[in-house]
Amino acid sequence: MTRLNSRQPSSRTPGDVFDLPHFKSMIQRTLRYVSAGYPVHYTGPAGIGKTTLALHTAEKRGRPVTVITGSRDLSREDLIGAYSGYSRKKLHDNFVRTVHKIEENVSENWVEGHLYKAVKEGHTLVYDEFTRSSPYTNNLFLSILEEKVMPLYGAKRNESHIRVHPEFRMLLTSNPSEYAGVYETQDALFDRLITIPLERMDVETETAVVMKRTGMKKEGAVKIVSLIKRVNEQLGGSGSPLSIRTSIMMADIAYQHAIPIEGSHPAFQHLCLDFMMFPLQLQAGEQTNNVEALILNECRNIKEGS
Ligand SMILES: Nc1ncnc2c1ncn2[C@@H]1O[C@H](COP(=O)(O)OP(=O)(O)OP(=O)(O)O)[C@@H](O)[C@H]1O
């Protein structure tokens, strides 16, 4: 019978992963720039940790945090707010028996957009994957960042704009592989951001994150993280198709189902193939025949206790 381990994130990691050198200086610098009033933009490939770092740093400011995720469908209306539905008030006055008076008032309901609230109340805004939104939507941020006002385009409000709260700040994330055809149209926005490219975590940091997320002990976590690193180096070409997400998922399943992190164990070999084959085949294109053999070769090099 399979023994199941219950997950206890954080329980085995000494201290906080964000105190490790990989994160510490980045967080300090970001808070410095943000407190001086500048928006900070983390950029890097999928799974490098942009969103997690932005959320953590935003929380460090001690202000309420609003999160918006960029998308082609995100509209100015979603951000600013809009009138939606009607409220109807009806008063029947039958005080004098022979007179029946009805008074009816109909008013539209204003629903605040997330950005409207964040700007008005001075939140820290995390705008994740902002380059996925249309330049038309993102133009709204130019006046917020430059003139410190948010125009209420098309909102049918009496006021034309609201003033940006002095504590309002922004952290943004994006993936450079999604810039195709985007940069030219959004360069005015890029020009107002402090852009920090994120580096892939070193083995020590990635191991600490895997331990924190899964509850796995250091000995197992470091083997998985190092395996992913070696496979990326051998098969990843110019990129690293296997991100920390692969390490976390493999460690999670191995830990929960007590699969030994040992290259000769069939369950571990299956785990390696199931998680690595597809992304690596996509990357390798025509030379896919080698992929399975290379994964198994790297996997079998992992010895018990090594
Ligand atoms: N410091 C950390 N502590 C705990 N988990 C982390 C940390 N950094 C990254 N992770 C985990 O690693 C995975 C990838 O991180 P994240 O989603 O932040 O990356 P990303 O660069 O924003 O990826 P994408 O571009 O695909 O959205 C997530 O499962 C996240 O929870």
TrEMBL record:
InterPro entries: ATPase_dyneun-rel_AAA, CbbQ/NirQ/NorQ/GpvN, Gas-vesicle_GvpN, P-loop_NTPase. It comes from the Bacteria. Residues 43-193 form the ATPase dynein-related AAA domain. It catalyses: ATP + H2O = ADP + phosphate + H(+). Its main location: cytoplasm. SUPFAM superfamilies: P-loop containing nucleoside triphosphate hydrolases (SSF52540). It is found in: Cytoplasm. This is Gas vesicle protein GvpN. It comes from Halobacillus kuroshimensis. The lineage of its organism: Bacteria, Bacillati, Bacillota, Bacilli, Bacillales. The gene is gvpN.
